Amino acid sequence: MIxxxxxxxxxxxxxxxxxxxxxxxxxxxxxxxxxxINEVKSEIKKLIDENEDSVLxxxxLxxxxLKSCLCRNEQIWSKRGI
Length: 82
Prior knowledge:
There is one protein chain. By secondary structure, this protein is mainly alpha-helical. 52% of the residues lie in helices and 9% in strands. Strands 1-2 form a two-stranded antiparallel sheet. Strand 1 and strand 2 (27-29) form a beta hairpin. The chain is globular.
């Protein structure tokens, strides 16, 4: 049983390394398109035993708004504190 768990963990790490960088023992980080997120989820579902394993996927959306794109009036920027 432990050997099977280790094999599954290794297979998941190998899969995640294709898409992301390993930051800690079991933490991966990367910028993935929605297509790649769906691929990763699909592959993980094939690899895990849902009765024994758990995988947490956290999607963080970062929206960057450039000053020149948001508005042209500098006064508005100073009022908002941006």
